[in-house]
Amino acid sequence: MKGFGVLLRKEIKEQFRTNKVIIVAAVFLIFGLLSPVMTKYLPEIINSMSGTDGIIFEMSDPVSNDAILSYASNIAQFGVLMAVLLAMGAITKEIGSGTAALLLSKPVSRLSFIVAKLTAEWLNMLLGLLLSGLACCIYTLLLFNDVSVMGFVYQMLLMAVYFAFCLVITIFFSSLMKSQIAAGGLAMAVIIIVSLLSILPRVGHFLPGELINWGNQLVLGTAGNVAWGALAVVAGLIVLGVYGAWLSLRRKEL
Amino acid sequence: MSAIRCEYLSKRYGAQVALDGVTIEVPERSIFGFLGPNGSGKTTMIKLLMGMSRPSAGCAWVNGNEVVADAPEMRAQIGYLPDVPNFYDWMRGEEFLRFVGELHHIPFADSVSRSHELLELVGLQKSGKRKIGGYSRGMKQRLGLAQALMNRPKVLFLDEPCSALDPMGRRDVLNIILKLRKSTTVFMSTHILSDVERVCDSLAIINKGKLIATSTVEALRRRFALSSFDLELDSDPAEFIILLEGQSWVQKVEKLEISSAYGLRVQAGDVQAAKQELPQMIAANRLGLVRYEMTMPSLEDIFVQLVEDEVRS
User: Fold this and answer.
1) Which of A2-6, A215-219, B113-117 is modeled with the greatest confidence?
2) Could you tell me which of B86, B116, B95 has the C-alpha nearest to residue A6?
3) DSSP conformational letter for B8
4) Over the stretch A63-84, which tens digit does the pLDDT of each residue have?
5) B203-220 burial, b if ≥16 CB within 10 A, otherwise e?
6) In this complex, do B90 and A250 lie within 8 Å of one another by their Cβ atoms?
7) Given CB atoms, is B14 within the 8 Å cutoff of chain A?
8) Per-residue pLDDT averaged across A15-33, rounded?
9) Which of B70, B85, B104 comes nearest A109 by C-beta?
10) How far is CA B171 from CA A178, B7, B283, in A?
11) Cα B63 from Cα B27, distance rounded (Å)
């Protein structure tokens, strides 16, 4: 991991200076702010419209957990998209432009190059998650006078692990492919397929998507299945993904 | 001791041969020119020596270490300027040099002073605080040279270092390279012969991936020297050319493009015979002689001849 610290500092600086931090934070904040508001007022908006043409909607009164679950659902979907968009050019773009050749002519290892990118992008998403989570918590508290803080924190941590998985998959394809569009497309396809497989009865319990379900159960405080298996599988996949990206980059002609 | 050595280094991309069994040795603290036309394999050679590309066959050693992929320790004493250097547009010139200094574990204070020193050396002292995204191609080339020198490398690989520079920039860069002679081994690829002639101690000539000559510049000149006679005549020498071509000591006669006179280059197989007979023949044919010179061939002449000989063989 030679040169990791220096490369990480450079990557973090790049996240700020190319406005990626602002973009991720802004997208996440929108959901952090809107989810509680929409959850609170959607029934009222729908009720105000019902009856005008003879149709009546019956909706139960929303509670704070509904706001948190709505936020989590939005963040999970858009977080995947953000992860893919952030990481799809991480390696292909640098190889294509020649900056990778210049950088890797210095005493730094290719593993440091990959892990520094992954860490900086993950930290960027973590910051977005923290800001939007904080906004969601405050709004939920203001609108519903109640929020399950610990459940919410655990859910965000599990979400952060899930995003790390998405970033690793994308970086792996970015090291493999020549075009960032191809890398992004393949990563998105794999993440969607893995998510779909999560609904399978036995196997699904060990797949990354289960982390989101586990988080939801922690928010609701329901005694669901604890998905340590899925967490272990995701950790293994992250290590494998980094190893695969390193192997692929080692074989690349710079 | 050799700073750079490679044996039978080859690189193939499918059926295409980019480099074909190249063996060279570069002595320490010398400037070595790697000369060849575009697409001859110069960049491939540098990438193989840097460990950025894997050879199909053969081995290379730099500073006594065998070149392998992903060996950061080996690169601590190497500097590299790519043919088209690209940087992070969001960084500033000085900031990039300090970043390179950090990668080489140069203490911060030294890194700052070294970056100022190098920016001044390459003529970018006024642009160091500007974002690299706004640099011209020539400025990037200068910054590329500065970053390659940041760690005071023992071996410096320069891939076409003057390709994007104006004449003043070229002169400056060549002067910088000349100053490195006592401390650094420079491996410089180029297709600009005058640059090699000006700064290099020795050179290798490559064409279509094959090494066709390795020598010092002087030895190469001597090998091809004193066999050519340049003549400028005041009348059309068409008949004289036919006469010359019939002589046993003449190897080749070619017309030279000169606007004010008729130019001829006579290449002699037997220099002594040529020295005695050529002036007599000119006089006997009553040709007005404007200029008569035994020429030292330029590196360009040698290069063209070697490449043509290679194509013919």
Assistant:
1) B113-117
2) B95
3) E
4) 888 888 899 999 999 999 999 9
5) bbbbbbbbbbbbeebeeb
6) no
7) no
8) 96
9) B70
10) 38, 33, 45
11) 10
